[in-house]
Design a protein that fits this description.
It is built from four helices and no strands. By secondary structure, it is an all-alpha fold. α3 (72-91) runs antiparallel to α4 (98-122).
């Protein structure tokens, strides 16, 4: 089946940026951990800075932007689990080379989980 992709002129300006972010971030989920960590650090700094501004303006803090509540480690693990891994799991049987990426994503999920557990241990919220 074929579908017509809308041009930027046919879409709202914000949606074009959103679509580009989604496409870029799905691909980021397949990168080596060191690259994924740097991307995560940058994106969450942007989120948290936005939350700080919202807090100073005394308006509701946007989803994922409250540095006092949000865990980037848990967020990235869930992001991989909900968005990235299902896509690559579906593609790995159809496209050669996707199995390697699907396996990398599974390993990245484990690494983010370890980071979350280590953070919780440090904060004494986690017990074995």
């Amino acid at each position: 089946f074929f579908f017509k992709q809308k041009t930027a002129y046919e879409m709202q300006r914000g949606l074009v940026g959103s679509e580009m972010c989604i496409r870029d971030s799905i691909g980021t989920g397949t990168r080596e951990l060191i690259i994924f960590e740097e991307w995560t650090k940058r994106v969450y700094n942007e989120f948290f800075n936005q939350g700080d501004v919202e807090k100073a303006l005394k308006i509701p803090i946007s989803f994922n932007c409250d540095r006092e509540v949000v865990s980037p480690y848990l967020g990235q693990k869930e992001y991989l689990q909900i968005f990235v891994r299902p896509l690559y799991d579906a593609l790995k049987d159809l496209i050669p080379g996707m199995k390697e990426l699907a396996d990398r994503i599974a390993n990245l999920q484990k690494e983010w989980d370890k980071k979350q557990i280590n953070l919780l241990k440090k904060l004494r919220y986690y017990q074995n």
